[in-house]
User: What shape does this take?
Amino acid sequence: MTRRGGPRLFCFGLGFSAEALARHLSVAEWTVMGTVRDPDKAKRLLAAGIDAQFWSGEPLRDDLTAKLHACNHVLISVPPDQNGDPVLNAAADAIKSMPSLNWLGYLSTTGVYGDTNGAWVDETAPTNPSSDRSRRRVEAENAWLALHREHSLPVHVFRLAGIYGPGRSTFDQIRKKRAKRIDKPGHAFSRIHVNDIARVLAASIAKPNPGTVYNVCDNEPAPPAEVTAYACGLLGKDPPELQSFEVAKRNMSPMALSFWNDNRRVDNKRILNELGVKLQYPDYRSGLQAILVEEE
Assistant: This one.
């Protein structure tokens, strides 16, 4: 039930990151509602106090529009597809007509920067996507930011690095005996623990700055082989043997290969300095240690 007054968040796509934000916000103070594609997940979230409604991208129903208009904060975590951004296509007019919108966050990806040959990128760097998936992200970012410029909507864009957390980490691949250690000298990935995504979003909600783009990642880009070896050590297992990238790529899916084709280090100073975020897991070591404690 929606509380009278108080902060109310509507999430288009109650996925891994949005659920983390919902947990982070005070249940006593916040009303959280949103959409899912799985009816069973809707039931689970409803039992947890989140008003989750089934929606698969069709024109927004009247009941969903009413719930959206009852909120004053909006989070979009639904990715664009070949037809563009589903939320923009279905709900742009409903969002523009919200009576009291204080904050809107769009979750994008650091993939919009493309390949920088390992160079650092901050939010002032040009976008240079190297895949169709990332190009669609750039188009979606631009469309949301256009709503800020043209309609004064309080849009914020968050470019997320590789997301990990309980149930979605290197540990899962190790336990399934699917972990690999690929040697590609000079190649590093940036990553972010899902709970720190929630911290960043909550900090932005508390300190809105419409039209701003934020990189969301931890302090230490690192080679995946290094991360896997560390995780194996925590589990008391021997790490897989190193395999050259040239050999490994022969069996990679197109999506996996697209990640390895981009090499960049992502700068996070804006979330630290402008939002005052103190990361709970500033590097993969602290994040993996906490996941292991929680899972065991």
Q: What stands out?
A: The first strand starts at residue 8 and ends at 12. DSSP finds twelve helices and 13 strands in the chain.
